[in-house]
Amino acid sequence: MATPTTFNVPGISCQHCIDAITREVTAVEGVADVAADLDAKTVAVVGGDDSAVRAAIDEAGFDIA
Question: Strand locations in the chain, DSSP E?
Answer without folding.
Answer: 5-8, 31-37, 42-47
